[in-house]
Specification:
heterodimer; A: Dihydrodipicolinate Reductase, domain 2; 4-stranded mixed sheet; 39% helix; B: alpha/beta; fumarase; 7 strands
């Protein structure tokens, strides 16, 4: 059985956290450039210019892209033939997260739900991270990471529809969520839609959908066509960059579809702001 | 058509009445930061008739919780946070002399009404442009509620800080008007 040292995971996670806060990934930059080209509103075009300039400043001067450096969210695929030595995998990811947020001068944004007290001294700096672990074949550990801001989480919604509402019902629900969100989630946005499964499966699928490279279509052509249909529908809303009106509200729609119970049709919409900070490592 | 203005704080009634939703303003001078927790304390002070940590007359409040500064920098990344969370507090501050707020996202009718009644405006800054906006903050110091961390009240010196008028003192709303212009109805 292959062994990976706890400390190696801590270090790799820390470096990934620091890098991701200041480097907008290529897929997001490409999508913003495309939106800038297509946008018809001069006000929105100006906002998109600022966002591209912001990405350059962040990368060159190693400044966080946004002051909301997010909660740290991970999807981890652990090969069945690999063993972590010297500690627990979850602890290593949390420790790497904390070190990265401190050493990268990133914001500690976790707090108690009710007292709103910052948890940096009680649990750890920007801890706990949100960690989803899956067991897979092989002897590697793949860690996918996103720094997820609060503004776009706040407008995300889940609902269990009646089966009779079908595809049309899903479109209507997604449209109502994005319409209601308006300027708040920092458009242009990426929309993750989880359909089917159970209530929580739909929600996790909608999150995982956001980890895909922006605009990369779903491998199933039918789902990919549905993504395209949703994208066109949502861009009719006219919200535009920062909600000031425009043709480019949504950069991409990613759908993850699961089989579901004969009685239900769960749908979850998870919104990602334009600062789509994500990265992955394989150990 | 959208106009460009260069303004320095504190803002006067005349400054405010010259602004229309959609105008771009390059703001300079001193502004103050406050988020939810600090707003609650400011409004509590007003209720008790006590003095605020900064003069409210003509003031501009920036809704922001910056990242920690790197050594040698006055502040870290500092873009706007979503404003609706301050909606329940802003009208009281406006009544007591606040002239401008900088944030992102929709405000409720009570805030829009207060802007109209007491001559104030709501500015939008570009959310997620924290690196760019942080660089335009020339100086920053915590002046109250240090224990709130990123939510402490800071005095900022800004230079040509770019904002857009979202809600003006005439009841106009750029979010509603801009969207109407580009909405495609089937």
């Amino acid at each position: 059985m292959r062994e990976i040292a706890y400390e190696d995971i801590v270090k790799a996670v820390k470096n990934m956290v620091i890098h991701t806060a200041t480097n907008l990934p290529e897929d997001a930059v490409t999508k913003l450039k495309e939106a800038h080209e297509k946008e018809k509103s001069p006000v929105a075009k100006k906002v998109l210019e600022q966002l591209l300039e912001n990405a350059d400043i962040a990368r060159e001067e190693k400044r966080p892209l946004c002051q909301d450096t997010g909660l740290a969210v991970y999807f981890v695929k652990v090969g069945q033939d690999v063993k972590v030595t010297g500690g627990l995998l979850k602890d290593a990811i949390n420790e790497g997260t904390e070190q990265g947020y401190i050493e990268g001068y990133l914001r500690a944004s976790t707090c108690d739900c009710f007292t709103r007290e910052n948890l940096k001294d009680k649990i750890g700096y920007n801890l706990p991270a949100i960690i989803h672990i899956d067991l897979v074949e092989g002897d590697k550990i793949e860690i996918e990471y996103a720094a997820k801001g609060g503004g776009s989480e706040n407008v995300s919604r889940a609902r269990v529809l009646a089966p009779a509402q079908g595809k049309e019902g899903v479109i209507e629900f997604v449209k109502s969520v994005i319409s209601e969100a308006g300027p708040n989630p920092c458009p242009p946005i990426i929309v993750g839609v989880g359909i089917g499964g159970t209530f929580e499966k739909a929600a996790i699928s909608s999150k995982y959908a956001l980890f895909r490279e922006a605009g990369q279509p779903h491998p199933d052509p039918e789902v990919a066509a549905f993504e395209q249909e949703l994208l066109e529908e949502l861009n009719k809303l006219g919200i535009g960059a920062m909600g000031m009106g425009g043709t480019q509200t949504v950069l991409a729609v990613h759908v993850e579809k699961n089989p579901c119970h004969i009685a239900s049709l769960p749908v979850s919409v998870n919104v990602q702001c334009h600062s789509s900070r994500h990265s992955h490592i394989t150990l | 058509m959208s106009q460009i203005h260069y303004l320095t704080t504190p803002l006067s009634d005349e400054d405010i009445m010259n602004l229309k939703a959609g105008d771009i303003v390059y703001l300079s001078g001193t502004i103050y930061t406050a988020r939810d927790a600090a707003h609650k304390r400011l409004v509590d002070l007003i209720a008790k008739g006590e003095e605020l940590p900064f003069p409210l007359r003509g003031a501009v409040i920036y809704f922001v919780g910056p990242t920690p500064p790197k050594p040698g920098d006055p502040i870290g990344s500092a873009g706007p946070t979503t404003s609706y969370r301050m909606d329940s507090y802003s009208p009281t501050l406006i009544e007591h002399g606040l002239k401008g707020m900088i944030g992102k996202g929709k405000r409720n009718q009570a805030v829009k009404d207060a802007c109209k009644e007491h001559k104030a405006v709501y500015f939008g800054a570009t959310g997620g442009a924290g690196a760019l906006l942080g660089k335009l903050i020339k100086d920053a110091k915590v002046i109250a509620y240090e224990e709130l961390g990123p939510e402490a009240v800071r005095e900022l010196i800004i230079e040509n800080f770019p904002v857009t008028v979202i809600n003006d003192a005439y009841g106009n709303d750029l979010y509603e008007e801009g969207r109407k212009q580009y909405e495609v109805k089937d």
